[in-house]
């Protein structure tokens, strides 16, 4: 993954097969090993949000985890920390657009909190996890004890044909964009031979996400309150969930049906139930019904 190595300056690990890139990244961080990106061709124990499993087509999918550093005070502040996972979703949308279409493409959106959607179907998802130990970072730095590691595991269906998608509701980049035409155009620009395989696409997207995460998290850490307002506006523009009838599934097994009314300043979702009451949802699996 040459572009990714160039974007992060090292610490990129690529496995043929691994249990879960997120688990590996977390273990490495906890063990004090330096790592920026963990990628795999095949995951045997891929994990999704809320303890779901994550399945993906080997060699045709994006299964990559990114390790970022953020101030502990921000990562643990519930008034603003919901934006960290939104940042990952926005960085992923930017990187996918740059690789396969133009910046104004309206098909790529986020389903709250951070599913990647394309034309109303699930293209991918993000598992954001925090590792409190700062051991992976430079402990000689003055502020090392004040930071936490964030692991953003991103799964995307890249060059996956319809018959190899994980569910009937899923989609892939192959089914929506001319991947080969884009690669050819890119190759013509760079003067390199056109390579149309999923590896090249993965590298291009991973490099974009790594760069986007770095710049977005730096801006957020510098001024979280101001950035939260900016992110709120940006996320509203690409939030597939807003205005739709949704059903939120909570970890205790309860559900809530209603209209996804608004995003709040802390990145939570406001749902209005048929009785007219509004409910603030912070953590749930939110399915769009109509
Ligand atoms: C979700 O939609 O529930 C989130 C899916 C996250 C999947 C990715 S694939 C790379 C990384 N490794 C994992 O085990 N999970 C994430």
Automatic annotation (TrEMBL):
* Catalytic EC class: ligase
UniProt keyword annotations, A-Z: Ligase
Q: Which Pfam families does UniProt cross-reference here?
A: BPL_LplA_LipB (PF03099)
Q: EC number(s) on record? A: 6.3.4.15
- Ligase as a keyword? yes
The residues covered by the BPL/LPL catalytic domain are 20-131
Source organism, top-level taxon:
Bacteria
GO MF: biotin--[biotin carboxyl-carrier protein] ligase activity
Which residues lie in coiled coils?
Answer: none
> What is the protein named?
Biotin--[acetyl-CoA-carboxylase] ligase
Q: Which organism is it from?
A: Bifidobacterium amazonense
């Amino acid at each position: 993954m040459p572009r990714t190595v160039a974007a992060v300056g090292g610490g990129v690990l690529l496995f043929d097969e691994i249990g879960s890139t997120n688990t590996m990244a977390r273990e490495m961080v906890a063990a004090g090993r330096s790592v920026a990106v963990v990628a795999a061709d095949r995951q045997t124990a891929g994990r999704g949000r809320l303890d779901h499993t994550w399945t993906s087509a080997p060699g045709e999918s994006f299964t990559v985890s990114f390790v970022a550093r953020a101030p502990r005070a921000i990562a643990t502040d519930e008034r603003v920390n919901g934006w960290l996972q939104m940042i990952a979703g926005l960085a992923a949308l930017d990187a996918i657009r740059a690789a396969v279409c133009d910046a104004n493409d309206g098909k790529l959106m986020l389903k709250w909190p951070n599913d990647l959607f394309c034309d109303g179907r699930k293209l991918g998802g993000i598992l954001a996890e925090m590792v409190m130990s700062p051991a992976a970072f430079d402990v000689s730095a003055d502020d090392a004890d004040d930071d936490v590691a964030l692991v953003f595991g991103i799964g995307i269906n890249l060059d996956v044909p319809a018959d190899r998608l994980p569910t009937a509701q899923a989609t892939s980049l192959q089914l929506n964009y001319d991947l080969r035409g884009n690669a050819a155009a890119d190759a013509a620009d760079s003067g390199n031979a056109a390579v149309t395989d999923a590896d090249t696409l993965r590298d291009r997207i991973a490099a974009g996400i790594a760069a986007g995460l770095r710049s977005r998290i730096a801006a957020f850490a510098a001024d979280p309150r101001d950035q939260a307002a900016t992110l709120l506006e940006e996320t509203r523009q690409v939030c597939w969930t807003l205005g739709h009838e949704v059903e939120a599934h909570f970890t205790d097994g309860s559900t809530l049906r209603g209209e996804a009314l608004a995003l709040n300043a802390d990145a939570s979702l406001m749902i209005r139930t048929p009785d007219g009451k509004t409910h603030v949802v912070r953590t749930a699996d939110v399915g769009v019904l109509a």
